[in-house]
Amino acid sequence: MNIDVVILAAGQGSRMRSNKPKVLHAIGGKPMVQHVIDAAKALGDVKVHIVVGHGADQVQANLGADSRYSDCQYIEQQEQLGTAHAVLQVLPALTSGSKTLILYGDVPLIKTETLRAMLEAVNETSMAVLTASLDDATGYGRIVRNDHNEVLSIVEHKDAKTDQLAINEINTGIMCIPQSCLAKWLPNIGNDNAQKEYYLPDVIAMSVNDGVAINTPSPQSLFEIQGVNNRLQLAELEREFQREQANKLMIEGATLSDPARVDIRGNVTVGQDVFIDINAVLQGDVVIG
Questions:
Q1: Rg for the chain (alpha carbons), in Å?
Q2: Relative to the CA of 111, which of 3, 28, 174, 202 has its CA 20 to 30 Å away?
Q3: Over the stretch 77-121, which tens digit does the pLDDT of each residue have?
Q4: What contacts 97, CB < 8 A, 6 or more positions away?
Q5: Of the candidates 220, 247, 276, which is a domain's last residue?
Q6: Is the pTM value of this prediction over 0.70?
Q7: Residue 22, exposed/middle/buried by CB under 10 A (0-12, 13-18, 19+)?
Q8: Catalytic residue among 15, 116, 145, 265
Q9: Cβ distance 5 to 46 under 8 Å?
Q10: In a domain, 118, yes or no
Q11: CATH code of the domain in which 275 resides
Q12: Neighbours of 62 (CB within 10 A)
């Protein structure tokens, strides 16, 4: 099956207190949305659709300046009416019969391996929802299952009943759904909820009704599903990204005087017997040794 990737990047990000669209704030010297695109493109032959809204021109100009993203398609969501509404804007551009991955431009540390697991869990009669278990699930949609451990629905936190709030398995928002199912389900999603928005998780109940199996892979790390709504969260993911990069260099044979005091903002290649002292900032394409 062909692969379509939909990246939702239309939000304003008001808590960032910035004129820059949230998805253009950087992790490791690269806009968050680029991290998401790169993870998706590493899957191979994929078609990338980016839903833009607030700061659409800035997002397109930023990505358009890099030839690696010249094949990305942009769809504008003029009114931000929810995640299902955002994906609905892309529906006419999706490849007939494709597997459609739905990602978020402000969830930058998602791994290609996790996306591949999502794709492998989907066929013409099944879909996938990336789920995770949290000690504190406040604010997240809960995964509601039956006695056979089958997914019945996703209930948003604000709409959840007391017993549902006790559930710690959450919807990360990342899904992979056959295009044929999206074409059937999206136009039928309503906004009868506390936020008066069109929620993508409402497709779960439709999937159950249509007998489409719901598989639930999980990420290897919770950092993969962590989104950014403010600068504190941005800094937390920056630290995790830098830790990953430092670990990679050490596995490849480099000695880091203090792995917590190296800053990597690009691609670094190391040779033999490489030593990197504290407070080094490595930017762009760097070869050492």
A1: 20
A2: 202
A3: 999 999 999 999 999 999 999 999 999 999 999 999 999 999 999
A4: 1, 2, 178, 179, 180
A5: 220
A6: yes
A7: buried
A8: 15
A9: yes
A10: yes
A11: 2.160.10.10
A12: 18
